[in-house]
Amino acid sequence: MEKVVIIRYAEIHLKGKNRGFFEHVFADNLEKSLRGIRHELHRTSGRWLVEKFEEGRAEEIAERVSNVFGVHSYSIGYLIGSSMEEIFEGAKLVAPTSGTFKVETHRAYKKYPLSSMEISAEIGGRLLETFPALKVDVHTPQNTVYIDVRENGTALVFCGSEEGVGGMPVGTSGKGLLLISGGIDSPVAGYMMAKRGMTVELLHFHSYPYTNEGAKEKVVTLAKILSKYTLVTRLTTVKVTKLQEEIHAKCAPELNVTLLRRFMFRIAESFARAHGYQCLVTGESLGQVASQTIEGMTSSNAVVTLPVLRPLVGFDKEEIIARSRKIGTYETSILPFEDCCTVFLPEHPAIRPALSFIEEEEKKLDVDALVEEALSTAEKVTF
Ligand code: ATP
Ligand code: MG
């Protein structure tokens, strides 16, 4: 009797002609999530089975696949022979021992000597005899024992299922570059794009020595947590110290953040184009802080032509925090390290800066040279 993890997928079936591609990417992602655990992954009528692993690792496998985008639900069950004796042995292992239940059978093998109804009734009856505290309730049972008689002389038994994360397989919706700070929002933004199938890789700006190693470590930790969902582990850091000092020395202090943002976008776009990313992704949310007004967003969008996706734009901070807790980044995000945005922070940042004023101030800087200089500091971090 072999323990297996049964995986059902979501949304993939909506993709018509691309179905083969989606399924291929999905299977690949499942494999990635199971790296380091001996197993076999097989497709079977509309779902995937993880088989041939050490029995004690079922929970760990279930936990890992539960975070793979595209997984609608999953169950731990048994793959067994399809004789009634074996089905009953399996059912005994997964069935509850008290409370209400029913048995539901699906029979892909139509020549099986008993009908689905007969199998359910027979196994249900035997379970009742075995566990006296059980009661049948066919309408609203607390538990449902599922039996799946397959065509190859095997059957699957499992009880109920857990919800997966849903979404679309990462790698089916293009490639985006996430501007990741050490804050709460940007990791959640990356998670959300990955959930829609986007391959998300990370770019982080630091202003060493104003920001320290701890700040960088924090971003690496966030990147590690995110990689559980995004399945990629590429993070690049870029130093913006020089251009921040220039802005600070030469431009109107209230535009400090606005100008830094424009540089971040220029650098990110240039990096994105060189590496084949199709859009930038940020954790901005409308009105959250001075630089995240529509005017602020307009001023940063004005310096790039790649699309800028802001998946959190309509979220309240509370909603973002709730998600961040759920995906496991919150505790790291709130560690108190300085981000480059808070270095040289003016007392009164401009809330609705006019583009003409911004452009006027920017003329005091050699924009292209500063962008080049920053890009030359790009460093790949592997973890
Ligand atoms: P977060 O929680 O993501 O830091 P925030 O509310 O602190 O967001 P800002 O600091 O204004 O907001 O940053 C807005 C967005 O700009 C971030 O969500 C992120 O996408 C990007 N960003 C900010 N700082 C950095 C940085 N040091 N490196 C890369 N991207 C950054
Ligand atoms: Mg921030």
In short:
By secondary structure, the protein is an alpha/beta fold.
Task: Describe the overall structure.
- The chain starts with a strand and ends with a strand.
- Strands 1, 2, 3, 4, 5, 6, 7, 8 and 9 form a 9-stranded mixed β-sheet that branches. A 6-stranded mixed β-sheet has the order 14-13-10-11-12-15, sandwiched between helices.
- It has 383 residues and is an alpha/beta fold.
- The protein has 2 domains: 162 residues, 2-Layer Sandwich (VC0802-like); 208 residues, HUPs (Rossmann fold).
- 39% of the residues lie in helices and 21% in strands.
- Bound molecules: adenosine-5'-triphosphate and magnesium ion.
- The site of adenosine-5'-triphosphate has 19 residues, from helix 5 and strand 11.
State the share of residues found in helices, binned by percent: 25-40%
Taken together, the total number of domains comes to 2
User: What share of residues are in beta strands?
Assistant: 15-25%
Discrete helix count: 13
Key structural traits:
383 residues; VC0802-like; binds magnesium ion; nine-stranded mixed β-sheet; binds adenosine-5'-triphosphate; alpha/beta; Rossmann fold; 2 domains; six-stranded mixed β-sheet; elongated; 15 strands
Write the layout of secondary structure elements.
Blueprint: E1 2-9, H1 19-33, E2 40-44, E3 47-51, H2 58-66, E4 71-81, H3 84-94, E5 99-107, H4 116-130, E6 134-136, E7 143-149, E8 154-159, E9 162-163, E10 175-179, H5 185-195, E11 199-206, H6 213-230, E12 235-239, H7 241-250, H8 256-275, E13 279-281, H9 294-301, E14 308-309, H10 317-327, H11 330-333, H12 355-362, H13 367-375, E15 379-381
Parallel strand pairs: 5-6, 5-7, 10-11, 10-13, 11-12, 13-14
Antiparallel strand pairs: 1-3, 1-4, 2-3, 4-8, 4-9, 7-8, 12-15
Magnesium ion (MG) is lined by residues 181, 183, 339, 341.
